[in-house]
Design goal:
Blueprint (H helix, E strand, L loop, with lengths): L4 E6 L3 E2 L4 E10 L4 E2 L4 E8 L5 E9 L3 E7 L7 E9 H4 L7 E7 L14 E7 L4 E2 L4 E9 L9 E6 L4 E6 L5 E6 L7 E6 L5 E5 L3 E2 L3 E9 L2 E8 L1 H7 L4 E7 L2 E7 L7 E7 L6 E8 L5 E9 L9 E7 L4 E8 L7 E9 L11 H6 L20 H12 L8 H6 L12 E7 L8 E6 L6 E3 L7 E7 L6 E7 L5 E2 L3 E6 L66 E2 L2 H6 L3 H7 L2 E5 L9 E5 L7 E4 L2 E2 L14 E7 L12 E6 L8 H6 L3 E4 L21 H6 L3 E8 L4 E7 L5 E10 L4 E9 L5
Organism: Maribacter aurantiacus
Protein name: Macroglobulin domain-containing protein
């Protein structure tokens, strides 16, 4: 079953109360290496620093793309938070494949003391998982401080019991290193590590096994790797002529080869071209003749990877501080590209992200441990970074997927296809034999007829798109077209469940500024909304407004109320129709059916006619309707009011007696109303907050200039958009995206506007 992977590109990583956290979601199918094109519910939650859920909202993903926003409102005090995005499929998996990213809410920067660097976590990780006696081994080293950050330039030595130095190493910027040696069961080995202050710490290696198989992966060139399997004579004699298998797998993809160890040989070696491996991550597992895994190693194949495609960017100044950006995809295929762009002031401190779309889809789903800076391995292509990536994979040990979970705990299917909100209803009345139950959703013009059985009181509507704020209007209609209010019980299930992030990183992230913390007082960073709130008052219009405008189909502002003057000028409603550009003909010689015909004078087509929003199959029913019986009407002769109504639309609404009652009361007399509160979150258009200043240091460090979530590069690989530069001429641009063929884009650039343009 495909496991969709999720990446959210957010406009920043640091926010102030009153801002929105804007995001563009990308859903990826690792099995096909392309966007996950099935429609999916996307659950986006916010969690506190301990991993407890604060809020969760529902958005929709279509063709692998989603977008939305989370309001950073008063429930967010200053502190560290986590953003988590998941789908119904991912919620059913034992492994945590959801997207998780830290962000901060700040109001005043303060000095924060880092955790003590004296407390170190040091691990020695043999390649493949075990040290086997008399089999050459590569051992990965991981040195982290209490904050979970790698300790750089940590030197170490491997020493035998006799005092001889066997190997030496030095950690890189992420606290990782490796060394080679030949372990012997009878030997005793210790490591001496020297920190930057010259202090020596001593540790012992993992136990050396008497039996087993070792694995070594060596990159020979950009497109070739060598895999060597080794064992000692004792293990070789026990294996005999048994056939083992070497598997190259991930995400349901599998390639394998049989391994028959040559007689009297303790080593076997193979060379593989990149075409023989899966693109991207490969989980290389040796299994014995019974299918039990023996050793495992992660290998990244960049030969056919679609990671980090580059973009050319052209900047052009426009009028009134506007800036136009034109994006060009280098070496572009003909596939469409979907991008999002965050534009922040040059020198921003509000974009402190350590992951990008490439690391989220190609690396992080397959490793067990936290990766300190996953995007580092995908921001540029070089031999050093490839070696650093291989060192990272060496120190990760086995992949994060447990074989027992894969085979014994497959995801439950009941929630996999959730692509909307489920509505559960119950009738608290007896539906007549000639009655139907209708549902109007929000401002949609056409009702949904709910199929009901005479013997059942309950009904379910699966996977509907209900937005928060939508008004669901239920009514019953009989054979005469009369609408009546049903007595119902209605409940919506959006699939949101309270959960917890159990893999929260228990450390304090680096604070942006530790000097002069009072310089950035962000309490008045955003000005209040300029909307003027008036005291509640009741205004009585001299012109009494009628209360028959209860249509769920037509906006009240488009409906024309019948005036006294119209009643005198047009005694019959057909006279009003004639005055609005239609020819009305009554054939007195014909039978009743087809007696009245109405034709649009513009195109000769007949309009669609509705009486109280009930469609009429012919025009005969309005022949004798007097204008005095009508409260309001809607006439559109353009032919564009609704599909299939090229001749226009005519809707008349008969008077409702008791005009002094409130319109809501009148509406509720014919409709059961349910306001949606747990549906999809409506997606807002981006707007810049009302910053107190766009020129001070606070804005430079934490302000937002623009967010563009819906960039689509055409088949020629080109797109452009315009934004308000707020008077600035230098910006930092952060782009993430995905093409329909699965190519990934991640670009961070400084852009400058030529002031002479």
């Amino acid at each position: 079953m495909p496991r969709p992977l999720v990446f959210l590109h957010t406009n920043k990583s640091d926010y102030v109360q009153g801002e929105y956290l804007w995001f563009n979601g990308y859903i990826y199918d690792p099995l096909t290496g392309s966007p996950y094109n099935e429609r999916l519910n996307l659950y986006v939650g916010v969690y506190d620093s301990e991993g407890n859920q604060i809020k969760k909202e529902l958005f929709i993903s279509e063709n692998g793309i989603s977008k939305g926003q989370i309001k950073v409102d008063s429930i967010f005090s200053a502190g560290l938070y986590y953003l988590k995005a998941t789908t119904g499929i991912l919620q059913n998996l034992k492994e945590e494949d959801s997207f998780i990213q830290k962000f901060r809410v700040i109001n005043r920067l303060q000095t924060v003391l880092e955790n003590s660097k004296d407390i170190l976590d040091i691990n020695f990780l043999p390649e493949g998982g075990t040290l086997v006696s008399d089999v050459p081994a590569t051992v990965g080293v991981k040195v982290e401080n209490r904050s979970g950050q790698g300790v750089e330039k940590f030197k170490g030595y491997l020493v035998e019991s006799k005092g001889d130095t066997v190997a030496s190493f030095e950690t890189n910027m992420f606290g990782l290193a490796r060394f080679n040696f030949l372990p012997r069961k009878e030997g005793t080995y210790s490591t001496s590590l020297i920190d930057s202050e010259g202090r020596i710490r001593q540790f012992f290696l993992p136990e050396i096994e008497e039996r087993g198989i070792g694995i070594n992966v060596k990159r020979l060139s950009e497109n070739k790797i060598q895999i060597t399997l080794g064992m000692n004579p004792l293990t070789r004699s026990e294996i005999g002529e048994k056939t083992y298998s070497l598997l190259f797998h991930r995400d349901g993809l599998l390639k394998h080869m049989d391994i028959n160890f040559p007689k009297d040989e303790t080593f076997v070696s193979y060379i593989f071209n990149s075409e023989e491996l899966h693109p991207g991550m490969n989980i290389v597992t040796l299994v014995d003749n019974t299918g039990i895994p023996v050793v495992e190693r992660l290998v990244f194949n960049s030969g056919d990877s679609k990671k980090n495609n580059d973009l050319n960017i052209n900047v052009k100044s426009k009028k009134f501080d506007s800036v136009q950006l034109t994006l060009f995809a280098k070496n572009s295929s003909k596939s469409l590209k979907f991008l999002s762009a965050s534009i922040l002031p040059l020198g921003t401190k509000a974009y402190q992200k350590k992951k990008n779309i490439s690391s989220s889809f190609l690396l992080e789903p397959y490793v067990n441990e936290n990766i300190e800076h996953p995007s580092y391995y995908f921001t540029e292509t070089s031999k050093k970074r490839e070696n650093d990536l291989d060192l990272l994979l060496l120190t990760q040990g086995w992949s994060r997927y447990d074989w027992k979970n894969i085979f014994n705990n497959s995801p439950r299917k009941e929630n996999n296809s959730r692509t909307g909100v489920d509505l559960y209803g119950k009738l608290n009345f007896e539906l007549g034999r000639n009655e139907n139950l209708l549902l109007y959703i929000g401002d949609k013009p056409y009702p949904k007829r709910i199929e009901l059985s005479q013997d059942l009181e309950e009904f379910v509507l699966k996977n509907y798109y209900f937005e928060n704020g939508d008004e669901l209007q239920f009514t019953t209609i009989n054979s005469n077209g009369k609408l009546s209010r049903p007595n119902l019980y209605v409940r919506l299930d959006n699939g949101i469940r309270v959960d917890k992030i159990h893999s929260v990183e228990k450390y304090i992230t680096e604070i942006v500024a530790k000097d002069n913390s009072e310089a950035y007082n962000l309490e008045d960073f955003i000005m209040p909304d300029k909307t003027i709130v008036l005291n509640e008052a009741t205004v009585v219009d001299k012109k009494k407004r009628n209360h028959y405008l209860i249509s769920p189909v037509v906006n009240e502002n488009r409906v024309t109320e019948i005036t006294e003057r119209e009643r005198k000028m047009y005694p019959r409603f057909m006279d009003i129709i004639r005055s609005n550009g239609f020819r009305v003909i009554i054939d007195w010689t014909s039978s009743y059916e087809g007696r009245v015909s109405i034709v649009n004078l513009r195109n000769g087509l007949s309009p669609a006619l509705y009486v109280d929003d009930i469609f009429q199959v012919d025009f005969n029913n309005i022949e004798h309707i007097l204008t005095d019986e009508i409260g309001a009407y809607f006439i559109d002769k353009s032919g564009n009011a609704e599909p299939g109504a090229g001749g226009g639309v005519i809707r008349l609404y008969r008077k409702i007696w008791g005009e002094g009652e409130d319109v809501k009361v009148e509406k509720e007399s014919r409709f059961f109303l349910h306001n949606v509160k747990n549906g999809f979150t409506p997606v807002k258009d981006f707007h810049v907050p009302n910053y107190a200043s766009v020129t001070d240091d606070a804005f430079i460090n934490f302000g937002t200039i623009h967010w563009e979530p819906g960039i689509i590069l055409d088949e020629n690989g080109k797109a452009d958009f315009i934004f308000d530069g707020k008077g600035w001429t230098e910006f930092e641009l952060f782009i993430e995206g995905m093409a329909s063929d699965g190519s990934l884009f991640s670009t961070n650039k400084i852009i400058r506007v030529d002031s002479s343009q």
